[in-house]
Design brief:
A hairpin with a 2-residue loop joins strand 23 and strand 24. The termini are far apart. The protein is mainly beta and about 575 residues long. The radius of gyration is 22 Å and the shape is globular. The chain has 5 helices and 32 strands. The chain has helices spanning about 15, 30-35, 110, 220-225, 550-555; strands at about 10, 95-105, 120-125, 130-135, 140-150, 165-170, 190-195, 210-215, 230-235, 270-280, 290, 300-305, 310, 310-315, 320-325, 335, 345-350, 350-360, 360-365, 370-375, 385-390, 410-415, 445-455, 455-460, 480-485, 495, 500-505, 520, 520-525, 530-535, 540-550, 560-565. Strands 1, 10, 11, 12, 13, 15, 17, 18 and 20 form a 9-stranded mixed beta sheet that branches. Strands 24-23-25-30-27-28 form a 6-stranded mixed beta sheet, with no helix packed on it. About 5% of the residues lie in helices and about 35% in strands. Bound molecules: copper (II) ion. The site of copper (II) ion has 6 residues, from loops.
């Protein structure tokens, strides 16, 4: 099938390698110089390299879709009074996830090193990390009960983390009490109920999110609890982004995917595959290692995709949709194919773009997501093509400003092209989802959030996280302009606000273009960057957070509470 490129925005040669998270502008020479430090602060004495493992020998793990349970089987029935608008959005699907401590095969050569070859220690959802994928549809409300079945703090084997759990479905339009507010946690033996209304913000289908992830958000322990294994993916479909490339609906986008969830391992929706990246360092006994004393951030030396170290995936000679997530805690990526071939970016932070953008790389900061379409029909059976990370980073503060090349590129994963003559009814649409309108007449307030560093801790507007202080209280039904500023000259901060997506008005004074012309929920700010964004606040009230999504910064107090108050 011929790819239609008629209306597709073609990035110019310079833009093709542009770090989009930095506002689509290359870092200035001054900023690059400030970023380039002679050595990282990691010392081999405190953080030795992981044991050597052979790349591309472990098959990619593709989690199945979470299976619904019969609501009658819930031992305690859901309490409608605990949830805003529960009766209006009565759940159609019910799910349970049990969070446990166990063992995970990150790589068989690491498992060989573990005691009794049981696998690396991991915290998991229903026995896997990533947990099963929450597949939901707009208009079909969902109820998820998450049980904390972890051992108590004095009994856990995991040397890091704290066994209290708060789960954030990033960045669903979720009522506060179900949002994974960092103080809304369940101790071992307790559960927390999450009600996802599956409504579009403001009932506007152009506000749909497509690619989301859920992860632990425990106050002070988000980085360690996610690093221990507590993350998973979520996919929201609707009538145009239906997950079915054979969809007969006249407005269906027919992106790659054939709705074959729950089949044989590796077949979860066939050609629509989620890839979550976490960089991990392993100790000599094959367990995840972590330096809790480094508050700049944590870097692993091995990249895991869906918690397999440098896996491979067999692909057919056709188009695939990959939903790519930076699961953190602190690493930034620029991903490109080994042969430098282009692909199409179709979303930013889980939101479909208006038009696909052709590019040869994507740039992600912690919690950024992008969906891409890669067409493997140009390869021959038996060929392999690797995904590499070319973003150099030598400590947790942010990218060094340099690019890795040749053998210094970091292995991410390998695609192995298999011999097949498979049908491909998917398309790369000319137009996907319109951006919601921006009406500046609705703006009632303008606020500034400055991300900085004071007294060895990370601050927002000079303050540390204090859940008793409400730093902003926008009224429901209003719009505001928010400014995110990075006051630091040598670090990057992925700034994340829960609940609503924003649209960029200006990035360092320039109007957004390309993939930045989108809805987003993480503004990844390079040194001295300034993003001016447009928000509307609707549908639910309660407490939410704004924080740096370098989870180590977040845990070292770079977070504030803000509330939506009744209009
Ligand atoms: Cu930060």
């Amino acid at each position: 099938m011929t790819i239609k490129r008629r209306q597709i925005l073609k990035a110019g040669a310079a833009a093709l390698t542009t770090p989009a998270i930095f506002g689509g502008a290359m870092l200035s020479k001054t900023a690059q110089a400030q970023l380039c430090r002679p050595t990282g602060i990691r010392s081999p004495g405190t953080e030795p390299d992981s044991p050597p493992v052979t790349p591309f020998t472990e098959p990619l793990f593709i989690p199945d879709a979470l299976s619904p349970v019969n609501p009658a089987s819930l031992t305690t029935p859901p309490d409608p009074n605990r949830h805003q608008r529960f009766d209006e959005f009565q759940p159609i699907k019910y799910y349970e996830q049990r969070i446990t401590e166990g063992y995970w095969n990150y790589h068989s050569e690491l498992t060989q090193l573990t005691p009794n070859q049981s696998g690396s220690l991991a915290w998991m959802y229903n026995g896997s990390t990533p947990g099963e994928t929450l597949v939901a549809r707009y208009g079909e409300p969902v109820f998820v009960r998450r049980y904390n079945d972890l051992p108590t703090a004095d009994q856990i084997q995991m040397p890091i983390g704290y066994p209290a759990i708060s789960t954030h479905l990033h960045n669903a339009h979720t009522a506060s009490e179900s949002d994974g507010y960092p103080m809304d946690f369940a101790e071992p033996g307790q559960f927390w109920d999450h009600h996802y209304a599956m409504m579009y913000a403001r009932n506007d289908p152009n506000e749909a999110l497509a690619s989301l992830w859920y992860h632990d958000h425990m106050i002070d322990f988000t980085a360690t609890n996610v690093y221990a294994g507590l993350s998973g993916m979520a996919i929201f479909y609707d009538h145009i982004d239906s997950g079915d490339e054979n969809d007969k609906h006249p407005h269906a986008l027919r992106l790659p995917g054939n709705m074959r969830f729950g089949g044989a391992p590796g077949s979860a929706n066939g050609y629509d595959i989620s890839l979550i990246l976490h960089d991990v360092r392993f100790d000599s006994s094959g367990n995840p290692a972590y330096n809790v004393f480094d508050t700049d951030g944590h870097l692993g030396d091995l990249i895991t995709v869906n918690r397999k170290v440098m896996p491979y995936l067999n692909v057919e000679r056709r188009k695939y949709r990959f939903r790519i997530y930076d699961g953190g805690p602190s690493r930034f990526y620029e991903l490109q194919l080994g042969d430098g071939d282009p692909f199409f970016i179709i979303s930013n932070d889980g939101n479909l773009l208006e038009e696909p953008v052709e590019a040869t790389s994507i740039v992600l900061g912690p919690a950024n997501r992008q969906d891409v379409i890669i067409d493997f029909s140009r390869y021959s059976p038996g060929q392999t093509v690797e995904f590499f990370n070319v973003m150099e980073q030598i400590n947790g503060q942010g990218p060094s400003g340099r690019r890795l090349d040749g053998p210094s590129r970091m292995n991410v994963m390998q695609f192995r092209i298999i011999d097949s003559n498979v049908e491909d009814n998917s398309q790369i649409p000319d137009f996907m989802r319109k951006l919601p309108p921006i009406n500046l007449n609705e703006v009632v307030a303008e606020r500034e959030w400055v991300f900085d560093h004071d007294m060895g801790l990370w601050t927002v507007n000079g303050s540390f996280m204090d859940p008793t202080i409400i730093s902003a209280a926008p009224r429901q039904g209003t719009a505001e302009i928010w400014h995110f500023r990075n006051a630091g000259s040598s670090w990057a901060h992925p700034c994340h606000v829960h609940f609503e997506e924003f649209q960029v008005l200006e990035w360092n004074g320039k109007k957004p273009t390309g993939v930045l012309r989108s809805r987003k929920d993480v503004a990844t700010l390079g040194p001295n960057d300034h993003a001016k964004v447009f928000y509307r606040f609707d549908d639910f009230v309660g407490r939410y957070v704004i924080h740096c999504h370098n989870n180590v910064h977040e845990d070292n107090a770079m977070m504030l509470r803000w509330d939506i108050t009744p209009g």
